[in-house]
Amino acid sequence: MPAIFNNTIKSRNRLKPLLWAALLPALLVAVGCYQDGAPTPAAPVGTAAVEGRVLLPAQPAPAGVVINIEAREIPEGVRVETVVEGLEIPWDLAFAPDGRILITERPGRIRVVQDGTLQAAPYATVNAVHQSESGLMGIALHPDFAGKGYLYVCYTYRDDSGRLLNRVARLTDRAGAGTDHRIILDAIPGASRHDGCRIRFGPDGYLYVTMGDAIVPELAQDLDSLAGKVLRLTAEGAAPADNPFPDSLVYTYGHRNPQGLAWHPETGDLFITEHGPDRDDEVNRLEPGSNYGWPEVTGAAADPRFLDPLLSLTPTVAIAGAAFYSQGRLPQSWEGNFLFTALKGAHLQRVVLAPPDFRSVQSREILFKNEFGRLRAVEMAPDGYVYFTTSNRDGRGRPRAGDDRLLRLAPLPPGPLARFQPDAQGNFSLELAPGTYQLRWESAELGSAERRIAVRDAGKIDLGVIELTRGDKVFHPGATE
Ligand SMILES: [Ca+2]
Question: How many angstroms separate the alpha carbon of residue 298 from the centre of ligand 1?
Fold first, then answer.
């Protein structure tokens, strides 16, 4: 992607001469606009005026108060950073409010990354049966993890009669470890393949669980079986009263092996990814109670009994984890994009959905093809990065040095710094070309504020009143560290 408009940050100096005379000499020295010492280029046609007012304790600004405004463009494009190496088949990720990253490894361990380091001792071990595609898979934190400490896992186990089954269990975070294993949902049909097992709490507070057909395709059409379904349950494992089928956990059916689960950040629509057989990997938007066709049909069958996918992929890429990008550190053009990983296809795919309802595909982009090998999980984290994992040690890949790895998408280095000052009333106006910008207002006397803005076309953007606050710096979307 081209880097655009890197050098067009420009201030429009609105200070009137009379006001200048009222300001202290110290403030006068600081007033002006520069860009790392370079002359400011002329703004091209199409810039937007970004305006607002800094809230001042008194107007004009009291003696000694100097307010700096800094602007940096976040260029188009992304880079990949390695977070940790040495994982074994990482399958799913969860992000604790205190910054820890919990990672399931399919052989049955939960690992923890703390302050950028993979802890040697597992956070928890689970007695999972790791055979072919099965094992310890999904992980999700309770919406009130900070208060309750609950986390949920989905894994394959063997019962007394030797059958492979899946279950959802709850652990409790205590003294830096996952303890107190309790079964929430038991004896779901399982197999060495097609176990689904992606779990996520939805915006409604219920736990959604994807289940594969456990290599018995007809189970996906059997509403009395939990195989080949997306399930919706309470945090205790019960069926919510408003589930589509009375007293049933089934939310949707007719699925083969759904591996990804994510909600659109704006519409709240639930999207899943699912593996096709020899054709038709699918991305589906879920409507409660609907039938997605497996094994009667795959792909867009235009059969009124079934809902068609919004995207099907032939040849298949072994579509896996899924996430929506929202409110993070990447350029604004990524907002609302649907991301999924591909195992066999060995890439990350970026899907731009068509406004206004975001229920069809506008364009797609294949990223990092064969660069990192097989990719499994992808998640949007509260720290603004998009994390994803390799799966080269899963028996179907070619492990490379450092595998498996936790990686993340990060923005490219920001553009040159441009500085401005507001006038004595706190008013400011910046002319910015289309792009994504990180703005920062700072005063040694008053504190600081940060705001990310997207400039799409010419016109005016009114940021309103900017209030400078003191206190610990928190993450702001797109903040540079
Ligand atoms: Ca289907």
Answer: 5
